[in-house]
From TrEMBL:
Domain FMN hydroxy acid dehydrogenase: 1-330
Database matches in Pfam families: FMN_dh
Keyword annotations of the record: Flavoprotein, FMN, Oxidoreductase
Name of the featured protein: Alpha-hydroxy-acid oxidizing enzyme
Species for this entry: Actinoplanes cyaneus
Molecular function GO terms recorded: FMN binding; oxidoreductase activity, acting on CH-OH group of donors
CDD domains xrefs: alpha_hydroxyacid_oxid_FMN (cd02809)
Family as reported in the entry's similarity comment: Belongs to the FMN-dependent alpha-hydroxy acid dehydrogenase family.
Binding site for glyoxylate: Y112, R147, H226, R229
Membrane keyword on record: no
């Protein structure tokens, strides 16, 4: 891959403290296994918004897959479908959502609410018509993060021929993705008038926001710091998760992403209160290395690692994973 694009995928904001912190936080946590639990064959099937998945490991929304592989987002969708899980399609995808939907599914669609409500509504309706089954509203990006690698590399626009295909308006013009620092909770209420899809908020870290989200009728949360690409210095997601899960008290599904690289990381996240996890860079790395097949294999490998770790920790189903199975290393 072009090293400038590799830096875009791997990099974070500022001094990359949060990027590193997501991984370092897992290094400080240890599993306290149970024994003689007769787990037999484990059952990793997970239900989210009425849909059954083979695994609680989903594909996080990430931009510009055509920079990683000529198969683009369609290849990722094919890999996710073969692994029996959801791919969240980024609003910054380089292929049309209709093309991605033909390659795989189930899909959810990630949205940055745009300042133009008519255009925002048209993007949501388009994703819904293409078959996306949930809307993931990214709320950690009122302004764009300062990615110093990209600034140093001068990575300010996509190579010729690549565009954000889902940003076309009805004249066919491709709009720039705007970050909107004027959005408040009323924006979520407005989105509710636009779509009947389940609405998840992605980028919640504070338990007070988790409570507000439930009060505003949000259907699910993703505890995320955008893979360390937005607010550098933000808390590691696995550290933020317990307080958010407690605030939500199982009223709506809570998902988490950031730094999940092993099945044991997934186990810890589920034990700390997540209903499912998402992975970003592991999927991008697999996509770059080997397209749809490699994406499928990477997701299956993480799932097999989770299955193995659950057997060793005495859990048969994700629901058996409880907070007492995780300790902070001394
Ligand atoms: C290259 C890249 C592009 C991303 N693009 C988006 C995006 O378009 N929308 C979004 O909500 N999050 C985006 N994210 C954040 C991911 O959805 C996710 O929060 C993060 O990658 C999880 O951390 P991980 O990479 O350690 O698994 C992006 C992340 C990366 C690495
Ligand atoms: C305008 C593209 C935004 C992609 C994104 O969210 C990221 O790179 O983290």
């Amino acid at each position: 891959m072009n090293p400038v694009h590799a830096d875009f995928f791997a990099g974070g904001a500022g001094a990359e403290r949060t990027l590193r912190g997501n991984l370092a936080a897992f290094d400080r946590l240890r599993i306290v296994p149970r024994v003689l639990r007769a787990t037999g064959d484990r059952d990793l099937r997970t239900t989210l918004f009425g849909a059954g998945l083979a695994t609680p490991i989903l594909v996080a929304p990430t931009a510009f897959h055509l920079l990683a592989h000529p198969g683009g987002e369609a290849a990722t969708a094919q890999g996710a479908a073969a692994a029996g899980t959801v791919m969240v399609v980024s609003m910054a995808a380089t292929q049309p959502v209709e093309v991605i939907a033909r390659a795989g599914g189930p899909l959810w669609f990630q949205l940055y609410p745009q300042p133009d409500p008519g255009f925002t509504a048209s993007v949501v309706k388009r994703a819904e018509a293409a078959g996306c089954r949930a809307l993931v509203v990214t709320v950690d990006s009122p302004v764009f993060g300062r990615r110093e690698r990209d600034l140093r590399n001068g990575f300010t626009e996509l190579p010729a021929g690549l565009v954000c295909e889902n940003m076309r308006d009805d004249t066919g013009r491709v709009r720039d993705i705007a970050m909107d620092a004027t959005a408040g909770w009323d924006r979520i209420g407005w989105l509710r008038t636009v779509t009947g899809l389940p609405i998840l908020l992605k980028g919640v870290l504070h338990p007070a926001d988790a409570r507000l989200a439930v009060e505003h009728g949000v259907d699910g949360l993703i505890v995320s710091n955008h893979g360390g690409r937005q607010l550098d210095g933000a808390i590691a997601t696995i550290d933020a998760l317990p307080a958010v899960a407690e605030a939500v008290a199982k009223r709506i599904p809570v998902l988490v992403d950031g730094g999940i690289r092993r099945g044991t990381d997934v186990l810890i996240a589920l034990a700390r209160g997540a209903d499912a996890v998402l992975v970003g860079r592991p999927v991008l790395d697999a996509l770059a290395a080997g397209g749809a097949t490699a994406v499928r294999d990477r997701l299956r490998e993480l799932t097999a690692e989770l299955d193995h770790a659950m057997a060793l920790a005495g859990a048969r189903r994700p629901d058996d994973l409880t907070p007492d199975l995780v300790a902070v290393a001394g």
